[in-house]
Write a structure and sequence with these properties.
Layout (H helix, E strand, L loop, with lengths): L1 E2 L8 E2 L2 E5 L13 E2 L6 H13 L3 E2 L2 E2 L4 E2 L4 E2 L4 E2 L4 E2 L4 E2 L4 E2 L4 E2 L4 E2 L4 E2 L4 E2 L4 E2 L4 E2 L4 E2 L4 E2 L4 E2 L4 E2 L7 E4 L4 E5 L4 H7 L6
Parallel strand pairs: 1-3, 4-5, 6-9, 7-10, 8-11, 9-12, 10-13, 11-14, 12-15, 13-16, 14-17, 15-18, 16-19, 17-20, 18-21, 19-22, 21-23
Antiparallel strand pairs: 2-3, 23-24
C-alpha cells in the first residue's frame, strides 16, 4: 500500500493503492510496518525521515532486482536503488539515499545521507558526495572529485573540480551558478507542510 499527501484514497500508483496521507502513520503500529520514503529532493527526504523516526518507524532499503551491487558495497538504511543501477566495488552509501534508474557509482565512491542521484548520472571512482547533495540526470562526476554538502549539480553537467558546500553548478565543465546561503535547505524544509 501507498501513502500520498497529494492523491485521493483509492488511487493506484504503479500498482499500489493509496490508503491515505502520512497523517495515518500515527494510527498504525510502527513495529508491524517498515517505511519507504520515495520523495526525490534531499530536504524533503530528511524532513520525512525525521517525521517517521519520531513516530518510531524504521525505513526499509529497497533494491530493484536489476541493480548490480558488488559484495564489498556498504548500503545504509532507508535507501532506494532503482532499476539498472550499478554500485561498483567498495562503494559506501549512507542512510536515506535515493539512486534513480541507471545510476553508476565507480569504485570507492562515497555518498552522504539524504543525497539524491537522478537518472543516468555517473559518479566515477574515488569521488566523495557529501550529505544532502542533488545530482541531476545525466551528470558525470570526474574521478576523485568532492561534491560539498547540500549542493546541487544541474542535469547533464560534467564536474571536473570540487564543488563547495551549498553551491549550485551547471554545464560542461560545471560552473558556479549561485551560492546558496548555508541554511537554504532549512528554509526549504520550513516550506514543507508539517503534520506533527
Amino acid at each position: 500500500d501507498f501513502l500520498a499527501d497529494d492523491q485521493p484514497i483509492g488511487t493506484s500508483i504503479n500498482g499500489f493503492k493509496v490508503i491515505g496521507s502520512r497523517t495515518i502513520l500515527s494510527e498504525l503500529d510502527p513495529k508491524q510496518i517498515e517505511i519507504c520514503i520515495a520523495v526525490g529532493t534531499p530536504a524533503h527526504r530528511r524532513k520525512m525521515v525525521e517525521y517517521v523516526n519520531l513516530l518510531g518507524y524504521r525505513c526499509a532499503t529497497l533494491i530493484d532486482p536489476t541493480a548490480l551491487i558488488r559484495p564489498s558495497v556498504i548500503l545504509g538504511q532507508g535507501c532506494l536503488v532503482l532499476a539498472n543501477t550499478v554500485l561498483n566495488s567498495h562503494v559506501r552509501v549512507s542512510d536515506h539515499v535515493f539512486l534513480n534508474t541507471g545510476v553508476i557509482l565507480g569504485h570507492h565512491v562515497s555518498i552522504g545521507a539524504y543525497t539524491v542521484v537522478l537518472t543516468g548520472a555517473k559518479i566515477l571512482g574515488g569521488s566523495n558526495v557529501e550529505e544532502g547533495v542533488e545530482i541531476g540526470a545525466g551528470t558525470c562526476v570526474y574521478p576523485k572529485t568532492r561534491i560539498g554538502a547540500w549542493s546541487k549539480v544541474a542535469m547533464s553537467s560534467a564536474v571536473f573540480k570540487e564543488v563547495q558546500p551549498y553551491e549550485v553548478v551547471s554545464g560542461n565543465p560545471a560552473r558556479l551558478i549561485t551560492q546558496n546561503p548555508s541554511n537554504w535547505f532549512e528554509v526549504e524544509l520550513q516550506e514543507i507542510p508539517d503534520v506533527t
